Amino acid sequence: EKDLDGVVICGNFVAEEMKKIVACVRKLPMVFLGQTNFCPGETDWVTYEVEDAVTMAMDCLRNTGHRRILYLGRLDIEGTPERNSKLFCFHEYLRRHPEMELAGVVEGEHGVTNGRAMMEQWLAGNSILPDALFVTNDPIAIGALQVLQERHIEVPSQISVVSINGDCTASAVS
To answer: How far apart are CA 20 and CA 136, in angstroms?
Structure first.
């Protein structure tokens, strides 16, 4: 701690993990970058409004004529408030826009491999493609895109994909 001026904590953690991290560096200034901060009184916090991000992405899809949307997403971390749940905000958007249709929901863990598994799972049980995929993070989107490419399903002519958390890895496939 003597050589540090402060700590930046990046990522999404369950409450127990976050409390352990904060306890280790309690005497230093801390900034948390992530979706749900379980220690808001002990750290500064940089985040985004989940509902706004979901609304912007869904408005883009709706305004470009996409109606039947498949949700691929990471499971919410235990204790995530509804306002920070992408799935909750997605369902609320669909409720407010009855012209939009839910093609399905597939949830799993974070990562490219899990994105592949989610896309494979959905394709195995469905013969009609949705108009678009709404994906909660870029690694899952990359996995889904790999599966679509392997199956010769063209993006964006056959299906569109939107992902809302902006990992730098997405620039490699955009």
So the answer is: 27
* Residue 33 β-bridge partners: 10, 46
- pTM beyond cutoff 0.90: no
Q: Which helix (H) or strand (E) holds 148?
A: helix 138-150
Rounded Cα distance, 106 and 136, in Å: 11
The CA distance from 70 to 9, in Å, is 32
CA distance 122 to 153: 14
Residue type at 43 in one-letter notation: T
> CA-to-CA distance for 111 and 90, rounded, in angstroms?
20
- As a residue count, the chain comes to 174
pLDDT digits (tens, 9 = 90+) for 45-77: 888 889 999 999 999 999 999 999 999 999 988
| Stretch (H or E) spanning 138 | helix 138-150
- Rounded to an integer, what distance in angstroms lies between the CA atom of residue 104 and that of residue 108? 14
Q: In what order do the strands lie in the sheet with 30-33?
A: 7-10, 30-33, 44-46
Query: Is residue 147 within 8 Å of residue 117, measured between CB atoms?
Result: no
